[in-house]
Amino acid sequence: MQAIMTQNGCETAGPVKAQVTGALPVWLSGTLLRNGPGCFSVGDSSYNHWFDGMSLIHSFTFSKGEVVYRSKFLKSETHKRNTAANRIVVSEFGTMIYPDPCKNIFSRAFTHLRNAIPDFTDNNLINLIRYGDQYYAASEVNYINQIDPATLDTLGRTNYRDHIALNLATAHPHYDDEGNTYNMGTAILGWTTPRYVIFKVPAQTTEAARRRPPLEQLQKVCSIPCRSNLAPGYFHSFGMTGRYLVFVEQPFKLHIPQLASAYFRGANWGSCLKFHPDDQTVFHLIDRHTGKEVATRYYGDAMVVFHHINAYEEGGVVVVDLISYSDSNLYQMFYLDNLRQDTPDYVKTNQGFSPPICKRFLLPLSVDQDVATGTNLVTDSRAEARLQKDGSVFCTPEVLFQGLELPAINYKFNGKKYRYFYGSRMEWSPHPNKLAKVDLETGTHLEWEEANCFPSEPVFVASPDAVVEDDGVVLSCVVSTDPALSPFLLVLDAHTWKEVGRAAVDARVHIDLHGLFIPAGP
Were 87 and a residue from 43, 240, 360, 418 both cysteine, which residue would form a disulfide, CB within 3.0 to 4.6 Å? Predict the structure, then answer.
């Protein structure tokens, strides 16, 4: 597995017809786009961390029971500069590239200190985002790169800061039923206190709107001051209900002074992320229509969160389902030196593997301050929300499932009460070797696994005439350590969790992170 994760990928620019076995649904028509790190060395230089690898985008296009595969490197400015120099010349979060000896290091360092945080890489290796009718490769910085979803060509770079003041942004937006896209980021420059900024890119519903680029129509929803002037909380995603945006401000923080002084200290940017186990987690509820935050303050124990599963409102309570860790060691596990070891350094130093735990938090919208301090404000659940003396609410979660990451749902149920979610099983290591379907109503789950196979994040695609939540298929790209087994796109019946078909490709397929499915047009 380590060898697969750390080898350089390669482009399959021309379409490759996959070998289909089984019977793919005739209605399955469209393109599955995937993104992830695909190049870990340039010339004689190598990256230190798996999340630093240069973005390689690949796709599976479905039509009339057939599948076509292609892949291309994202031609970001980072990729162009590294390729031209035949070495890594742009710093990433786990790999710091120091100035050439001929350059004035003090001048460069002064620039970083003056600007608080540096101008980051545009190596957008995490996900694909839709804004209006345009698609972008994204990571967690102020740059995104537009791509053509059919050819995978890179069409050009966009800077969020040309449209809204922020330095970092998530690669996990949300889409509402009207086609609007919601996203959020962190603004550090220009504020006395760093702020979290939530914004909306409206759907292009009129001819006038369609004549303008979607990001030129961006609207700020609100901004929330950070709890700390010098260390805003890190966030990878957020939740959305029919009315509210759910932001979890966790005690996993990006320390700005350390970030600004990284060059002086000989440290990488990733080392500036620190988990504070004695701190608390804060839950923010923002009305996405008015931009106003709910006045009640909701707290929980310290945790690290990367992915939300879903959120919805029911009976005066906002239900927040997410995946959390008890520490931040997951990031350490993906240093390439650790991935190449049978017994990685993080195990040798007794840090161990903190498994992902799927949790449900309940946030009551109506808080009666006349009830006794310590009263549990929610009922009929193993989760608790207890009133504190200062009027805040302390939330203790219900555990839904253990050992699952990269969650997916039928997105038609995003922000609504739902029954099923899907994910990659990570029971004892960060390398998923199973796919799971979790039934929240019965508390049971189903698994798919195959020897020596490692599936990617599952993606749910609903059937055109679906009347129940799990009527559709789940797609996952699978790689294997068995050289006799070609990489393949797995298609599972989401209801029965049985394989209905697979599409094997004669190409080197890299392990990816996230992606999305684009249905074929009418």
Answer: 43
